[in-house]
Design goal:
globular, single chain, 8 strands, eight-stranded mixed β-sheet, Rossmann fold
Length: 278
Protein backbone atom coordinates (compact mmCIF):
# COMPACT_ATOMS: atom_id res chain seq x y z
CA UNK A 1 0.00 0.00 0.00
CA UNK A 2 1.23 3.56 -0.68
CA UNK A 3 2.70 5.42 2.29
CA UNK A 4 4.67 8.58 2.84
CA UNK A 5 6.97 9.09 5.82
CA UNK A 6 6.61 12.43 7.60
CA UNK A 7 9.49 14.48 8.98
CA UNK A 8 8.90 12.99 12.42
CA UNK A 9 8.95 9.45 11.03
CA UNK A 10 5.22 8.61 10.84
CA UNK A 11 3.90 6.40 8.04
CA UNK A 12 0.84 8.03 6.44
CA UNK A 13 -1.37 5.96 4.13
CA UNK A 14 -2.82 7.64 1.03
CA UNK A 15 -4.88 6.91 -2.08
CA UNK A 16 -4.03 8.50 -5.42
CA UNK A 17 -6.41 7.71 -8.28
CA UNK A 18 -6.63 9.06 -11.81
CA UNK A 19 -4.40 10.71 -14.37
CA UNK A 20 -1.33 12.40 -12.92
CA UNK A 21 -1.90 15.18 -15.48
CA UNK A 22 -5.39 15.98 -14.19
CA UNK A 23 -6.17 18.68 -11.62
CA UNK A 24 -5.95 17.12 -8.16
CA UNK A 25 -8.66 17.17 -5.51
CA UNK A 26 -7.36 16.27 -2.05
CA UNK A 27 -9.92 15.05 0.51
CA UNK A 28 -9.44 15.34 4.30
CA UNK A 29 -11.64 13.09 6.44
CA UNK A 30 -13.42 13.68 9.72
CA UNK A 31 -12.97 12.16 13.17
CA UNK A 32 -12.61 9.19 13.82
CA UNK A 33 -12.84 7.99 10.24
CA UNK A 34 -10.48 7.41 7.31
CA UNK A 35 -10.00 8.23 3.65
CA UNK A 36 -12.73 5.66 2.92
CA UNK A 37 -15.34 8.18 4.08
CA UNK A 38 -14.76 9.94 0.75
CA UNK A 39 -15.46 6.90 -1.47
CA UNK A 40 -18.53 8.46 -3.08
CA UNK A 41 -16.81 11.77 -3.84
CA UNK A 42 -13.60 10.14 -5.06
CA UNK A 43 -15.43 7.92 -7.53
CA UNK A 44 -17.64 10.82 -8.66
CA UNK A 45 -14.78 13.24 -9.32
CA UNK A 46 -12.62 10.53 -10.87
CA UNK A 47 -15.40 10.06 -13.43
CA UNK A 48 -15.38 13.83 -14.01
CA UNK A 49 -11.74 13.65 -15.06
CA UNK A 50 -9.99 14.78 -11.87
CA UNK A 51 -7.11 13.22 -9.99
CA UNK A 52 -8.39 12.31 -6.53
CA UNK A 53 -6.25 11.95 -3.42
CA UNK A 54 -7.11 11.15 0.18
CA UNK A 55 -5.03 10.10 3.16
CA UNK A 56 -5.66 8.58 6.57
CA UNK A 57 -4.82 10.97 9.40
CA UNK A 58 -2.08 9.74 11.74
CA UNK A 59 -3.51 7.19 14.15
CA UNK A 60 -6.56 6.71 11.90
CA UNK A 61 -7.37 4.05 9.32
CA UNK A 62 -4.24 2.47 7.83
CA UNK A 63 -1.80 5.15 8.95
CA UNK A 64 0.66 4.39 11.71
CA UNK A 65 -0.74 4.26 15.25
CA UNK A 66 1.85 6.49 16.86
CA UNK A 67 1.66 7.81 20.41
CA UNK A 68 2.25 11.49 19.70
CA UNK A 69 1.27 14.33 17.39
CA UNK A 70 -2.51 14.14 17.59
CA UNK A 71 -3.04 17.86 17.09
CA UNK A 72 -3.88 20.21 14.22
CA UNK A 73 -0.31 21.32 13.63
CA UNK A 74 0.81 17.75 13.02
CA UNK A 75 -2.35 16.94 11.02
CA UNK A 76 -1.62 19.85 8.68
CA UNK A 77 2.07 18.97 8.40
CA UNK A 78 1.15 15.36 7.58
CA UNK A 79 -1.20 16.56 4.84
CA UNK A 80 1.61 18.71 3.49
CA UNK A 81 3.91 15.67 3.46
CA UNK A 82 1.43 13.84 1.22
CA UNK A 83 1.06 16.85 -1.07
CA UNK A 84 4.81 17.33 -1.40
CA UNK A 85 5.46 13.62 -1.92
CA UNK A 86 2.96 13.55 -4.80
CA UNK A 87 3.99 17.05 -5.95
CA UNK A 88 0.37 18.15 -6.16
CA UNK A 89 -0.15 21.58 -7.68
CA UNK A 90 -3.21 23.74 -8.42
CA UNK A 91 -5.12 21.52 -5.98
CA UNK A 92 -8.56 21.78 -4.46
CA UNK A 93 -8.55 20.78 -0.79
CA UNK A 94 -11.86 19.56 0.67
CA UNK A 95 -12.24 18.86 4.37
CA UNK A 96 -15.14 17.46 6.37
CA UNK A 97 -15.62 18.19 10.07
CA UNK A 98 -12.19 17.73 11.74
CA UNK A 99 -10.81 17.52 8.21
CA UNK A 100 -12.11 21.04 7.67
CA UNK A 101 -9.89 22.26 10.48
CA UNK A 102 -7.04 20.33 8.94
CA UNK A 103 -7.67 22.01 5.58
CA UNK A 104 -7.81 25.47 7.15
CA UNK A 105 -4.50 25.00 8.91
CA UNK A 106 -2.85 23.28 5.94
CA UNK A 107 -3.90 25.95 3.45
CA UNK A 108 -2.97 28.84 5.75
CA UNK A 109 0.39 27.50 6.92
CA UNK A 110 1.61 25.28 4.09
CA UNK A 111 -0.30 25.11 0.82
CA UNK A 112 -0.77 28.81 0.05
CA UNK A 113 2.82 29.64 0.96
CA UNK A 114 4.02 26.90 -1.39
CA UNK A 115 1.70 28.04 -4.18
CA UNK A 116 0.03 24.63 -4.38
CA UNK A 117 -3.61 25.48 -3.61
CA UNK A 118 -6.23 26.69 -6.09
CA UNK A 119 -9.38 26.47 -3.95
CA UNK A 120 -10.61 25.10 -0.64
CA UNK A 121 -13.87 23.67 0.65
CA UNK A 122 -15.06 23.37 4.25
CA UNK A 123 -17.86 20.81 4.70
CA UNK A 124 -19.63 20.75 8.09
CA UNK A 125 -16.29 21.89 9.43
CA UNK A 126 -15.13 22.62 12.99
CA UNK A 127 -13.51 26.09 12.53
CA UNK A 128 -13.22 28.65 13.89
CA UNK A 129 -13.53 27.12 17.41
CA UNK A 130 -15.94 24.49 18.70
CA UNK A 131 -15.59 24.74 22.47
CA UNK A 132 -17.33 27.44 24.50
CA UNK A 133 -14.98 29.99 26.04
CA UNK A 134 -15.31 33.50 27.41
CA UNK A 135 -14.42 34.81 23.94
CA UNK A 136 -16.55 32.17 22.17
CA UNK A 137 -19.87 32.11 24.06
CA UNK A 138 -21.68 30.43 21.15
CA UNK A 139 -19.45 27.36 21.40
CA UNK A 140 -20.30 23.90 22.70
CA UNK A 141 -19.73 23.40 26.45
CA UNK A 142 -16.55 21.52 27.38
CA UNK A 143 -18.72 19.00 29.26
CA UNK A 144 -19.98 17.68 25.92
CA UNK A 145 -16.45 16.84 24.81
CA UNK A 146 -15.63 15.42 28.23
CA UNK A 147 -18.61 13.14 27.67
CA UNK A 148 -17.17 12.03 24.34
CA UNK A 149 -13.88 11.17 26.04
CA UNK A 150 -15.60 9.26 28.82
CA UNK A 151 -17.74 7.26 26.38
CA UNK A 152 -14.75 6.45 24.19
CA UNK A 153 -12.63 5.33 27.12
CA UNK A 154 -15.43 3.23 28.63
CA UNK A 155 -16.58 1.39 25.48
CA UNK A 156 -15.26 2.73 22.21
CA UNK A 157 -16.97 0.03 20.15
CA UNK A 158 -20.41 0.93 21.51
CA UNK A 159 -19.75 4.67 21.25
CA UNK A 160 -18.86 4.19 17.60
CA UNK A 161 -22.24 2.54 17.06
CA UNK A 162 -24.19 5.19 18.95
CA UNK A 163 -22.76 8.18 17.04
CA UNK A 164 -23.67 7.14 13.46
CA UNK A 165 -26.93 5.53 14.59
CA UNK A 166 -27.96 8.83 16.16
CA UNK A 167 -26.85 12.41 15.48
CA UNK A 168 -24.11 12.05 12.87
CA UNK A 169 -26.41 11.25 9.94
CA UNK A 170 -29.60 12.55 11.50
CA UNK A 171 -30.87 8.98 11.85
CA UNK A 172 -32.44 9.99 15.17
CA UNK A 173 -34.86 12.30 13.32
CA UNK A 174 -38.41 11.24 12.61
CA UNK A 175 -38.80 9.85 9.10
CA UNK A 176 -35.06 9.41 8.48
CA UNK A 177 -34.17 6.77 5.87
CA UNK A 178 -31.67 4.72 7.84
CA UNK A 179 -28.92 2.73 6.12
CA UNK A 180 -27.38 0.00 8.25
CA UNK A 181 -24.54 -0.19 5.75
CA UNK A 182 -23.64 3.47 6.38
CA UNK A 183 -23.70 2.87 10.15
CA UNK A 184 -21.57 -0.27 9.85
CA UNK A 185 -19.09 1.50 7.57
CA UNK A 186 -18.69 4.35 10.08
CA UNK A 187 -18.03 1.79 12.83
CA UNK A 188 -15.57 -0.12 10.64
CA UNK A 189 -13.56 2.98 9.83
CA UNK A 190 -13.51 4.14 13.44
CA UNK A 191 -12.42 0.82 14.89
CA UNK A 192 -9.52 0.59 12.43
CA UNK A 193 -7.85 3.52 14.19
CA UNK A 194 -6.07 4.01 17.49
CA UNK A 195 -8.07 4.67 20.65
CA UNK A 196 -5.34 7.05 21.82
CA UNK A 197 -5.42 9.02 18.57
CA UNK A 198 -9.20 9.24 18.76
CA UNK A 199 -9.18 10.25 22.43
CA UNK A 200 -6.61 13.01 21.92
CA UNK A 201 -8.23 14.02 18.64
CA UNK A 202 -11.29 15.22 20.55
CA UNK A 203 -9.18 17.98 22.06
CA UNK A 204 -7.69 18.75 18.65
CA UNK A 205 -11.03 19.23 16.91
CA UNK A 206 -12.81 20.97 19.77
CA UNK A 207 -10.19 23.26 21.31
CA UNK A 208 -8.08 24.39 18.35
CA UNK A 209 -8.73 28.02 17.42
CA UNK A 210 -8.68 28.41 13.62
CA UNK A 211 -9.60 32.10 13.55
CA UNK A 212 -6.19 33.20 12.27
CA UNK A 213 -6.11 30.33 9.77
CA UNK A 214 -9.40 31.45 8.24
CA UNK A 215 -8.31 35.08 8.11
CA UNK A 216 -5.10 34.08 6.31
CA UNK A 217 -6.79 32.10 3.54
CA UNK A 218 -7.05 34.08 0.30
CA UNK A 219 -7.96 31.36 -2.22
CA UNK A 220 -11.65 30.97 -3.15
CA UNK A 221 -13.31 28.89 -0.45
CA UNK A 222 -16.69 27.18 -0.42
CA UNK A 223 -18.40 26.77 2.97
CA UNK A 224 -21.12 24.09 3.14
CA UNK A 225 -23.21 22.93 6.10
CA UNK A 226 -26.65 21.64 6.98
CA UNK A 227 -28.83 23.59 9.39
CA UNK A 228 -29.74 20.33 11.18
CA UNK A 229 -26.12 19.49 11.98
CA UNK A 230 -26.31 18.04 15.50
CA UNK A 231 -22.53 17.60 15.83
CA UNK A 232 -21.14 20.98 14.74
CA UNK A 233 -23.76 23.74 15.15
CA UNK A 234 -23.79 25.69 11.90
CA UNK A 235 -24.27 29.14 13.44
CA UNK A 236 -21.01 28.73 15.35
CA UNK A 237 -19.24 27.17 12.36
CA UNK A 238 -20.24 27.85 8.75
CA UNK A 239 -21.73 31.28 9.44
CA UNK A 240 -18.60 32.43 11.25
CA UNK A 241 -16.29 30.82 8.68
CA UNK A 242 -17.95 32.80 5.93
CA UNK A 243 -17.45 36.04 7.84
CA UNK A 244 -13.77 35.39 8.60
CA UNK A 245 -12.73 34.20 5.14
CA UNK A 246 -11.65 36.80 2.58
CA UNK A 247 -13.06 35.10 -0.52
CA UNK A 248 -15.89 32.74 0.37
CA UNK A 249 -19.17 31.32 -0.86
CA UNK A 250 -21.70 29.97 1.66
CA UNK A 251 -24.32 27.26 1.19
CA UNK A 252 -26.61 26.29 4.09
CA UNK A 253 -28.74 23.21 3.40
CA UNK A 254 -32.15 23.07 5.12
CA UNK A 255 -32.56 19.86 7.10
CA UNK A 256 -29.18 18.35 6.20
CA UNK A 257 -27.16 16.50 8.85
CA UNK A 258 -23.48 16.49 9.79
CA UNK A 259 -22.95 13.49 7.51
CA UNK A 260 -24.53 15.11 4.46
CA UNK A 261 -21.58 14.26 2.20
CA UNK A 262 -22.70 10.63 2.53
CA UNK A 263 -26.49 10.72 2.86
CA UNK A 264 -26.96 13.69 0.50
CA UNK A 265 -24.03 13.00 -1.78
CA UNK A 266 -25.94 13.76 -4.98
CA UNK A 267 -26.69 17.33 -3.89
CA UNK A 268 -23.31 17.96 -2.27
CA UNK A 269 -21.33 16.56 -5.20
CA UNK A 270 -23.18 18.71 -7.72
CA UNK A 271 -22.46 21.86 -5.72
CA UNK A 272 -18.81 20.87 -5.24
CA UNK A 273 -18.43 20.33 -8.97
CA UNK A 274 -20.02 23.69 -9.78
CA UNK A 275 -17.65 25.46 -7.38
CA UNK A 276 -14.57 23.65 -8.67
CA UNK A 277 -15.44 24.38 -12.29
CA UNK A 278 -16.55 27.95 -11.60
Amino acid sequence: MPYVTTKDGVEIFYKDWGSKDAQPIHFHHGWPLSADDWDNQMLFFLQQGYRVVAHDRRGHGRSEQVSDGHDMDHYAADASAVVEHLDLKNSIHIGHSTGGGQVARYVARHGQLQGRVAKAVLVSAVPPLMVRTADNPDGTPIEVFDGFRAALAANRAQFFIDVPTGPFYGYNRSGAQISQGVIDNWWRQGMMGSAKAHYEGIKAFSETDHTDDLKAITVPTLVMQGDDDQVVPYKAAAIKQDKLLQNSQLIIYPGFSHGMLTVNADVVNADLLAFIRG
